[in-house]
Amino acid sequence: MNETPDTLENTAAKEPRSAEFQPEYLDPSSPAFDPSAGLERWAQQMDVYTGPDAMLDFNQVDYVHINLSDANPSGLAQLLAGRKTRLSTLIRDKSLLGHEMRAARTLRTKIYELSTGHGLDAGYFVAGTASWLSHAMRDDAKASEKRFIAPILMAPLNLTPHPTSDDFELQLAGSARLNPAMVRQIKQEYEIDLGTMDVAQLANSMSRLDPEPVIERMRASAGRIPGMTIESKYFISTFADLKESMGELPHTAHTPLVRDLAALKVPGAQPREMNAHNLLQPLNQRDPAQETLLFDADPVAQNIIDTAASGFSMTVTAAPGTEPLRTAVNIASTLMGRGKSVLVVGEKRSTLASFSELLGRTGLNDLRYDLLAEHTAEDQRTEFIRAIVRNENTAEPNSTNLNRELIETRTALTDHTHALTARDPLWHISISEALQRVAELASEESAPQTQVRFSRQLLDTLQDREAITADIVRFAELNGFTRATRTSPWHRARLLNEDEAADAYALVITLRSSLLSLREAMNAMNASLHLRRARTIADWDAQLAILIRIRETLKRFRAEVYDRPVTDLIAATASGSWRRENRIDMSSMQRSRLRRAAKEYILPGVHIGDLHEHLKVVQTERAEWIRLLDSPSTPKIPENLDALANALHSLGSELSGLEIILPDTAEGVDFVHTDLDQLEARLDALLNDREVLMSLPERDVLLGRLTNAGLSDFLDELGEREANASEVTSELELAWWQSALEELLEQHAEKILDGDELRDIEARFRRADYAHMSSAQARLLAHTARLWTERIEEFHEQASYLKSQLRGREFDLESLLVNAPVMARTLLPLWTASPFSLARRVPMSMRFDAVILLDAESTPLAANLPAITRADQVIAVGDPHAGFPAPFIVSAPTSGAPASDSHRLESTFGALSRLLPNRTLSLVHRPFGRVLFDYLNREFYGSHLREIPVSPASRKPVSTLSIEYIDTRGKVSDNANLESPSVEVDRVTHLVLEHAYRRPERSLAVVTASPKHAQRIAGAVRQALNTYPQLAEFFKPGTESFRVVDVNRAGSLERDTVIFSLGVGRARLGQSSHNLGLLSGPHGREGFVVGLTRARRATHIVSCVSPTDMNAQKLYEGALDLYRLMLAYEENQQQIAAQTPREDVLASNAWLETEDEPTDPVTQDWLLNDAVARLRERGVRVRPGEDEIAFIALAPQQLIHTESEQESAQRMPLMVGSDVLFDYTTESVREHTRLVPERLSRTGWNYVTLNTLEVFADPEAVVARILRYLGIYAD
């Protein structure tokens, strides 16, 4: 998934406001600033919040009560004896019983409301009333009179419906006491202390409550109080002593936050805005032995917990379903693990009960002191003794091996991912990126194929390869890699520029012309002289050379000298020594004859000095001539011999120029000895390859640069494949990236895990981490025990005082908290309270390190001031979109509640949000319907919320939204009940009874948009049960009993199914009233959120009006939200109806419901896209994922093979992740490796993490594994 905590901060890091100079007395940070006036102004909110004080002004005419003054004596005696007593036993007169039953129902509702919504046990049996006149001074210094009517003796009482009949049971629930408000008022006004009256001895002397002695004692005291009258009357009603709930506010604020809160109420003062940061080490680097987290936390929640552990105050927005209490418990346990004391305050009893239940799951309720519970002094003593015994008996957990395993596996996984994702410091790429790039290149239509690998040095050089790439492309464009270029006669010619190339071409033209002309002349000469036709230029040279020599000889001899051998003539003309050396024996006569014959060959007039030597020359020339002859012939000298010789010389010079150009060519430059046909053909080839020639200089320059860059092997390979210009860039990229990949893999080889290793270490980590989390309780208890031992030594005097209290005759908690607060907080580091119980039971001097304020959106700041002023760190948890401080009255008025004045109240959350940074819990653990979730997320929570997707295979209930419009056409108009149409009341009643009959295992509630509608539905259901008594079992009181409440009283309610009944009727003309009850009020939007988010499974809206009956411009607040939700629902239903039913349509998240084309890539990951393509080829449906989910694979039913129950379990759809999708610098191994799979498993998914290298190296094996998860097996 993958959103970070910073994106969810509404005011993550607030900078101090820039302010002009202000006097010190208006600067909250100055010692001159007096916070008392501002705090007092906040405290005044309580008068608005709690309404009239019935403890001192209870008029039986004004307030609902059950009158027991004339109760049946035996029934009253049974009640006073502490036994359960039916109301019908107390009231025997049937004419009075109906009235008292109605009063009982009203009181029962009020008691429930005060208990669940405000943490108040308000049901009391009252004996006696005292009435007197108070002579108080008004603000204008004038005397004023006020009559007080106060209950005298009050005993807590339980009022519950009878389980089998339409009756109520009453039972005293504690000891009686004098009205504390009366005691304070009389002491303040008349300095008469009624608190010295021994109520316990007077009223409980017979093991039963006997109120009369106390009433008589009050009559005796009444004479000292002017105008006091005492009446002996018994009744039951609701009371709570709230006026002293604020306690004594501090004269000097202990913390900057309290001073800034005070500044909010001081005109001209400018409070500061505070920051909050997570200062802890990343979770992956922490010592497991120090972690005391009790419940798993998603990354956003973990960041909030860590920020709290860093000591910062903040507000936490908790949308429905984000499990804020788990986060609160985790914050508390983490702070306790750091040796801090924590106070948890919640106005709603149900919230504190849920907090306690969560804590109890971990076995740590022994660390908690519940200020809301009624404790006797002995109970309190026992609780502290039990805490000491717990500390003494707590042993250090033996978790060395577990911690080592956790660290080793965690390190292996982080090292693996780091090795894949860490970037090379020079190349700035990671293995993962290299794999992706190689896969991307391989996916191209004409994928590169190079096998060349570059060295590290060459990789460094080619990191910036733009210029090199351009050279290679240009080289290819110049046909540098074609076979024709490489086999061209010009290949490797030495030419530097186009001019030289042009000159070379011109030279070849000249050469070819010269060659052809000379060849023609030489052929003619050969024919006339009977010479063999020359094959090479060397042959021409030999022919012309011998002719030139013969021509010189013929200047001395006649041509006939060449007709016969002259060997004997040479011997005859030689010296005797020559003949002896050559062993020639010749007579003198013979010599003479031969000399004469030799002289006959000499031309007339020519004198030859050394005839012997000249004849030797003739002999040599004759031998050469004969070798050149095609047929016998006497040498003749052609007339054009010199011209031929000159032409040959010129040709040789031209060839020398060509030799300079072509020395490196494949055919070489031995032109003289080249066959003339071949030479002529070569020249023709040179002439015909002008295009290659003209590009050769540029190509050679490029080749030189590329070769010098070390790319010879790469160029040779491209040449072998005759790569074209469109291919070479990809080839170079593949060579670089593949080489870089192999280099990086070698560097990180020790830390990279193969697929089997990764799966094994993940499994080991999951086992170790699960065991680690399960042992958090033991670590926290051991830490508390160590801290206790240390503080006994450090705070010796407090320890001694604690010992004296525990051993003393009477245990006094208040004295203990004043004199030994550190010991009390160490033994019991977690304290829970309601705002109304804290100040009465904890002295102002008792401070806590941190306070967690629950229900902060619905509790006014004034109520939480006692908690805020007692703590150094404040964390307020709430949902400002789902609650507000609603004024309440403890006693139920007979004429209905007075008008609400809630606009004068600022919630704790709202006030603190003006000063503290905000964090938002984002992961919704309870699934909502698609339409409802999208609407709430978009319109209320800034689209920050995330759902856990629910698969079709899930057995977990998926919350669904349905809307039912009641057709009232043709029915009798019910104008008297436009606020609560009878037809709607009847329909909802029918739905309730149907639910009780068909689905009794699921809890149910009805939420309405108006109190009147709630009352009418509740009455109709009660009436219907007379007809269907067999359903009564479903409606018995219990943990999640059936309730009917309006939206303002539904905040603490949660049920499996909720029926939301609007309760608005159509007028005669079919137009709605446009006043949708509480939804149209000033807090209608909060009511909308509450009303539509109370269900775990299903929310069913019932309404007589539809969007077509309403005008959006006449709707406001939550009424407009409901209208828009109805429209969105109808649009969604139309879309569903238009779609072809599919077996694999997934509920919930939109990103699961998108259609996909078979060819569309589903990820940005090239490797995974390849696996996706292979899966689709096998018929698997694949859809894109989000965050940590790469993609989702679903197997159509026809592909699945289920041969056993075990295999059947593998038919769940599959969420596929990757080992590189998580950044372990910001996210924990726990989140990726254990929590994500666990969350998905709970909602019907299989989950698998793919090893990136395995996907790269063997994609078919990976695909086969995925298919097995889906239940698809190869044939």
Description:
The strands form five sheets. Strands 1, 2, 3, 4, 5, 6 and 7 form a seven-stranded antiparallel β-sheet that branches. A seven-stranded parallel β-sheet has the order 10-11-9-12-13-8-14, with helices on both faces. The model is unreliable at 1-19, 1140-1157 and 1204-1210 (pLDDT under 50). It contains 48 helices and 25 strands. Helix content is 46%, strand content 11%. Helix 11 crosses helix 12 (349-361), helix 15 (431-442) runs antiparallel to helix 29 (725-747) and helix 20 (537-553) packs antiparallel against helix 25 (641-661). The protein starts with 35 loop residues before the first helix and ends in a 6-residue tail after the last helix. The chain is elongated and about 200 Å long.
Key words describing this protein structure:
single chain, 46% helix, disordered N terminus, alpha/beta, 11% strand, 1275 residues, 7-stranded parallel beta sheet, 7-stranded antiparallel beta sheet
Distance between the termini: 35 Å
Main β sheet profile: 7 strands, antiparallel
Helix content: 40-55%
Q: What is the helix tally?
A: 48
Number of strands: 25
Low-confidence blocks of residues: 1-19, 1140-1157, 1204-1210
Radius of gyration: 53 Å
Give the overall shape: elongated
Name the beta content range.
5-15%
Question: From the helix content, strand content and strand pairing, which structural class follows?
Answer: alpha/beta
Mean pLDDT: 87
Task: Describe the SSE topology.
Elements: H1 36-43, H2 45-50, E1 66-67, H3 73-80, E2 85-86, H4 87-90, H5 94-118, E3 123-137, E4 143-161, E5 168-172, E6 177-178, H6 180-190, H7 199-203, H8 212-222, E7 229-238, H9 256-263, H10 299-309, E8 314-318, H11 324-337, E9 342-346, H12 349-361, E10 368-370, H13 377-393, H14 400-421, H15 431-442, H16 456-461, H17 466-477, H18 483-486, H19 498-528, H20 537-553, H21 567-572, H22 576-581, H23 588-600, H24 611-628, H25 641-661, H26 676-688, H27 690-708, H28 712-720, H29 725-747, H30 755-774, H31 776-794, H32 796-807, H33 813-819, H34 821-827, E11 830-833, H35 835-841, E12 848-854, H36 861-868, E13 871-878, H37 908-913, E14 918-921, E15 923-924, H38 930-939, E16 946-947, E17 960-965, H39 982-998, E18 1004-1008, H40 1011-1027, E19 1043-1046, E20 1055-1061, H41 1084-1092, E21 1095-1103, H42 1117-1138, H43 1150-1153, H44 1166-1177, E22 1181-1184, E23 1191-1194, H45 1205-1208, E24 1214-1218, H46 1229-1242, E25 1246-1250, H47 1252-1257, H48 1259-1269
